[in-house]
Design a protein that fits this description.
Blueprint: H1 15-28, H2 35-40, H3 44-59, H4 65-79, H5 82-94, H6 99-107, H7 117-125, H8 131-145, H9 151-159, H10 164-187, H11 200-208
Length: 209
Amino acid sequence: MRLPYAPNTPPTPDQDTADIYRRIAERRHPRPLIPLDLSLLHSPPVADGWNSFIGAIRTQTVIDQGLLELAISRVAVLTQAVYEWNAHAPLALKGGIRPESLCAVRTLSSTAVGDDLPAAQVSLSQSALSAREQAVIQYTDEMTQTVKVQDSTFTRLQTEGFSDREIVELTTGIAGYNCVSRVLVALDVGENNAREMKSVDELVQALAK
């Protein structure tokens, strides 16, 4: 971490700050505050808004949680956010994503940028990913790396049966976790930047214990 972590308890008697700590702790319960919380809590108002936004994405959405975690895991790969991958790839597996699909997310070339996008598209279409998963990955790649999403990519989400609400939730989830990854990497939260992302086999083995 490039900054010292904020304390685990409010550093001042200020009630507003104490309330922010309480709200974040309530969302994390029964876990303690995590390094990302203790990074953001240098600015309690920012930490509070972050907790509300990310909390809504994580706990108040109707989109399939496996697909959401798949998208977040792809964001982690594209932005080289080791902390994010190690935290969310296991959640994708818990959400019903098959290991072979997660392996594809980890290894496939970007479908948004690169020297041979047609080959990347073919690799995506021939991967272990289902049609719905492929649509999510294409959308995630473009949102993360080119920002502008092609009409065909957006239409594919609708063709695959995603409702308007689900598309908004997927979009905000991808955007939100792009924000997360950039904070994680810029500040080296959790001291993960120099580490390797865990392999899918390691994640599967850990979940089996």
